[in-house]
Write a structure and sequence with these properties.
single chain, 269 residues, alpha+beta, 8-stranded antiparallel beta sheet, 8 helices, 12 strands, 30% helix
Length: 269
């Protein structure tokens, strides 16, 4: 499978559009999806542990959180406690629109996780297996949900981190049965590739946007209002900086954009 997948690299659909680009060559990608999955398994991981938020041997949520060393200690402790006060202790409001819809920041991932995750992405790119663009607007990066991270990393990240925090911060938007669908990807901004991102709202209920590094300058996020609410037409920009290991948590409908990086490289999960 690996040799066959590498042989298709020259036939990859062109990555051009910065709007609705997820439809570029969609049939081609779907036709070869199984082959690319088999090739990825043949290639193997660089670090198998990064595909899991906690070791598989953990019995129960409490034990898993205690062993989830990719998460910073205060986050693990607050999530294990689970009380409203504990959950709110790890987030910091960084801006809000005129209707009161806030954006929050939390120190989420360790530097080791950030470095290991990016090294794993480098390893996957080095395989020669075609990698599909992460979404319709970003052209560079990878879809983690298609690369073996869905069940062991992304699903517990949603269950242990995103859902409890989102339910506490936006109870009117996030009910107990929300946030069941998960789509995770990494986007890369680099001089000579994509450097910025046009204003948009996400298709998600809630978005977690974590900065993995590397070294970069610029690239601030700009937030406006929230679609389908009284603030949807707001034009005032609230500027929020990104930094390695920190994550922003916001409603998917919160309009935002990314200013251009002026130096270096930044990847976000």
């Amino acid at each position: 499978p690996l040799a066959a997948a590498r042989g298709l690299r020259d036939q990859m659909p062109a990555v051009l559009a910065k709007s609705y680009g997820d439809q570029e060559g969609a049939e081609w990608w779907e036709r070869h999806e199984a082959l690319f999955e088999d090739a990825r398994k043949e290639w193997g991981p660089r670090c198998a542990d990064v595909y899991r938020l906690a070791p598989a041997a953990c019995d129960g949520r409490a034990a898993a959180l205690a062993a989830a060393v990719w998460l910073q200690d205060p986050v693990r402790q607050a999530l294990a406690n689970g009380s409203p006060a504990a959950l709110r202790s790890i987030v910091r409001e960084v801006c809000r629109d005129g209707a009161g819809h806030a954006v929050y920041s939390l120190d989420l991932f360790t530097d080791t996780l950030c470095d290991t995750m990016l090294a794993e992405l480098d390893h996957l790119e080095a395989s020669g297996i075609p990698l599909r663009r992460p979404n319709g607007m970003n052209r560079y990066g990878a879809i983690l949900s298609y690369l073996g991270f869905q069940d062991g990393f992304l699903a517990p990240l949603m269950a242990w981190v995103v859902r409890p925090l989102a339910s506490e911060l936006w109870p009117e938007w996030v009910a107990a049965d929300d946030c069941d669908d998960i789509y995770g990807f990494i986007v890369r901004y680099r001089i000579g590739e994509d450097t910025d991102l046009a204003e948009h709202a996400d298709t998600s209920n809630v978005t977690l946007n974590a900065c993995l590094g590397r070294e970069f300058e610029g690239g601030e996020l700009c937030f406006k209002g929230v679609r389908f609410t009284g603030s949807a037409e707001e034009q005032e920009e609230r500027i929020v900086a990104h930094r390695k290991g920190a994550a922003l948590l916001h409603l998917g409908g919160h309009f935002h954009a990314a200013r251009a990086i002026t130096a270096g490289e930044r990847s976000n999960l």
